[in-house]
Write a structure and sequence with these properties.
By secondary structure, this protein is of the alpha/beta class. It folds into two domains: 285 residues, Zn peptidases (Aminopeptidase); 122 residues, Alpha-Beta Plaits (2-Layer Sandwich). Helix content is 33%, strand content 22%. The strands form six sheets. A six-stranded mixed beta sheet has the order 1-2-6-3-7-18, with helices on both faces. Bound molecules: ligand BES and manganese (II) ion (2 copies). The site of ligand BES has 19 residues, from β9 and β15.
């Protein structure tokens, strides 16, 4: 281990320089204007994976963005770790809110500011560098396969089919992912659950054309007014979701589980201050941690229609739109919930409008065991480098492929994430701690070592 850690220390600056080069390519998967940049990012990573010592490195095109694969099999009898990550990033808008441009990484206060600095370029690239360090020092203890995709931020629509078509190639004992967060650098934690997701777009149509709001106003349904009311009705006064059947099948946490969760440090005043809100709002009867980790939610992500340009235009619009997401928990199913939503949303629409619901993408919730050697290897690795045993936590975000891996490849994942809540994922001024980037690289070889040992016992 000394050799690997020595190599990491000696190459620290180059690792950071390479991460900066990676971040500079704007791989926004949602926006087709960036298609060439997404491919360029994949090609950049291909070269780095080869340089680090991987074999069978290849880029697989998909209907969307390509998938990068590479491996190093040192002995088929040894365990195999499948590393998953994503090289695509969220759009950077609104650009004017960034202190420095999103694709010009800048270090301020020991943090790397850029889109993708943490999610997931910074975290994914730690695995490339840890692998390089093990390869160059001849200390790789087991087999490794890399599968890095470019469509996570748009729901991984082509990764499922890729996994099904490449089952033998992707065969592994565990999937190792760094794409989640910890409580704090002095309170390390590991997510043992992720929420699922369903994402829909709704369209409400009133009159067959935009109308003069004076000539027709008062006589014809305004689809924006109607849509706003429909969305508002999806929560009751206790912030429970009103869709019939929405909560069916959800397993409530036991009193012990809730007590265990409440042990994790949480400072409500700091939380509110960080977000600039005077009061928190959420489902009655649950703590903030429970609301974000263990409870399903419904949020309007965008709403538009009518006139939004400069000045004013007196118009009664023909159409109104919204994008709505629901975060799901075990045992909700994204397809079923999409159906329940669709049925309910249409049923609450007055006869004066027509409603269409278009599903975008979804993903299933997951819970990972904490009594497995897969988890233990991560817990021990973090304890070694952070000096404290990590607390198991539930992550509120979604990584749709985790449930799919389990279903299609029969492989469980370990979510060994090194981000923090302050990283501002998906927001302007996303950042990643320099400390976290290096700590991640240092921790990963311990995971490999621990897992190989535990697995062969
Ligand atoms: N890395 C995040 C997920 C995440 C972040 C999980 C923090 C736990 C803690 C991932 O890139 C992400 O943003 N996923 C999307 C899912 C998707 C289908 C667009 C999400 O959660 O919104
Ligand atoms: Mn991510
Ligand atoms: Mn993300």
């Amino acid at each position: 281990m000394e050799k690997v850690q020595g190599y990491i220390q000696e190459n620290k600056q180059r690792f950071m320089d390479e991460l900066f080069d990676l971040i500079r390519i704007p791989s926004i998967s949602a926006d087709s204007e960036y298609k060439a940049d997404v491919l360029k990012t994949c090609e950049f990573l291909k070269e780095k994976l080869i340089a680090a010592g991987a074999e069978n490195v290849e880029i697989s095109p998909t209907k969307g963005h390509p998938i990068l694969y590479g491996d190093k099999i040192i002995d088929p009898k040894l365990p195999t770790i499948l590393v998953y990550g994503h090289y695509d990033v969220q759009p950077a808008v609104p650009l004017e809110l960034w202190t420095t441009p999103p694709f010009e990484p800048t270090i301020r206060n020991e943090r790397i500011y850029a889109r993708g600095a943490c999610d997931d370029k910074g975290q994914m690239y730690m695995h490339f560098k840890a692998f390089e360090a093990m390869m160059k020092t001849g200390t790789l203890p087991c087999n490794v396969k890399f599968m890095i995709e470019g469509e996570e931020e748009v729901g991984s629509p082509n990764l499922g089919p890729y996994c099904i078509a490449n089952k033998a190639k992707l065969k592994a004992d565990v999937c190792l992912i760094s794409d989640t967060s910890m409580i704090a650098n002095d309170v390390p934690s590991i997510d043992v659950g992720l929420r699922g997701l369903t994402y829909v777009e709704v369209e409400v149509t009133g009159p067959n054309r935009d109308l003069h709001s004076g000539v027709y106003g008062g006589a014809v349904a305004n689809p924006i007014n109607i849509l706003a009311k429909m969305i508002a009705s999806l929560h009751d006064e206790n912030m429970h979701i009103t869709i019939p059947g929405f909560y069916d099948g959800i397993v409530e946490q036991t009193a012990e589980e809730r007590a265990e969760m409440a042990k994790a440090p949480f400072n409500e005043a700091d939380y509110k201050k960080d977000l600039g809100v005077a009061e928190l709002l959420g489902e009655k009867g649950y703590t903030t941690m429970e609301r974000t980790g263990t409870r399903p939610t419904l949020d309007c992500n965008g709403i538009w229609g009518g006139y939004t340009g400069e000045g004013s235009k007196t118009v009664l619009p023909s159409k109104a739109f919204a994008k709505i997401s629901m975060r799901l928990v075990p045992n909700q199913n994204s397809h079923h919930i999409t159906e329940l939503f669709s049925k309910h949303f249409k049923s609450i629409a007055p006869a004066s409008v027509k409603v269409e619901v278009r599903p975008h993408h979804g993903g299933e919730p997951v819970l990972t065991p904490t009594d497995s050697i897969e988890f233990k290897a991560a817990s021990m690795a973090i304890e070694k480098t952070f000096g404290k045993k990590p607390i198991p936590t539930r992550g509120g975000g979604s990584i749709p492929i985790v449930a799919l891996f389990e279903k299609e490849l029969g492989v469980k994942s370990v979510l060994m994430g090194f981000g923090l809540d302050i990283d501002a994922l998906h927001s302007p001024n996303e950042s990643y701690g320099v400390f976290n980037f290096y700590k991640g690289i240092e921790t990963i070889p311990y995971y490999y070592e621990n897992y190989t040992k535990l697995k062969s016992q």
